[in-house]
């Protein structure tokens, strides 16, 4: 029986398997970001390097380092005129992406902070898929002002779980630090949420609860009053999730989000990363 996907944002994240040849080392999340007339696969540095960005120690218990990603993505598979106009039959394909070309990494990392910013971008097309880039115009975002206490949604695959048919699980939280401040001198902020392994690389969206203030509307960044107000629910892409603060699962329950500016700096900088096999 056909079902309707109620949220366009569910088409943004994709599940990834982190591989050494055909051995699965772990699972994670990735998404696409569109900038400078190109699409880029975005995920965490530790997903492609297999190392912790702070200490550079290898994450896998047997010291295995990834050399591939397996990406699961949605694709139209109609093949007939049986479905009503406007409807689609969607299937999930898997493709393997080599992380090295001639022994050199294919990913870009932050031009200033390198792996200290736990984010990478890989130029990769999405033609022929049903994927939305995280910043797609079709998602109708509003440049709402980020502030502590606003709701956030982290869309990913905790411990490899899906929301059915490889759609993501939505984890809810709130902004827990002043987003304008770069924590530890790096472009990141904290969110208050109980996230789990497998969500590394998840897109993070902020939602403005317009019913709380402004009499049911919000004024976006750069606005000057009710003439610029947005009526109804307002959302904004905020960045990429990379894991919890520290190793403890339950004490702080703070997650790290790298700002959207970190992604754009990586893409614009086009600085190739260093091979994890040579660190």
Q: How would the blueprint of this fold be written?
A:
Blueprint: E1 14-20, E2 23-35, E3 38-43, H1 45-49, E4 68-76, E5 90-98, E6 100-101, E7 104-105, E8 108-109, E9 120-123, E10 151-156, E11 169-175, E12 188-192, E13 203-208, E14 217-218, E15 230-231, E16 234-244, E17 254-259, H2 260-269, E18 271-272
Antiparallel strand pairs: 1-2, 1-4, 2-3, 3-9, 4-5, 6-7, 8-18, 10-11, 10-13, 11-12, 12-17, 13-16, 14-15, 16-17
Organism: Reinekea marinisedimentorum
Protein name: Trypsin-like peptidase
Folded structure, characterized:
The chain is mainly beta and 279 residues long. The chain has one domain: Thrombin, subunit H. Helices cover 5% and strands 36% of the residues. It has helices spanning 45-49, 260-269, and strands spanning 14-20, 23-35, 38-43, 68-76, 90-98, 100-101, 104-105, 108-109, 120-123, 151-156, 169-175, 188-192, 203-208, 217-218, 230-231, 234-244, 254-259, 271-272. Strands 5-4-1-2-3-9 form a six-stranded antiparallel sheet. A hairpin with a 2-residue loop joins strand 1 (14-20) and strand 2. The chain is globular. Mean pLDDT is 88; it is low at 80-84. It comes from Reinekea marinisedimentorum. This is Trypsin-like peptidase.
Brief summary:
InterPro entries: Peptidase_S1_PA (IPR009003). The protein contains 2 helices and 18 strands.
Level of helix content?
under 10%
CATH topology: Thrombin, subunit H
The low-confidence runs, each spanning 5 or more residues with pLDDT under 50, are 80-84
**CATH homologous superfamily label:** Trypsin-like serine proteases
Number of domains: 1
For the largest beta-sheet, the strand count, sense and barrel status come to: 6 strands, antiparallel
How many extended strands?
18
- What does the oligomeric state look like here? single chain
Structural class by SSE content: mainly beta
One letter per element, helices H and strands E, the order comes to: EEEHEEEEEEEEEEEEEEHE
Protein name: Trypsin-like peptidase
InterPro entries: Peptidase_S1_PA
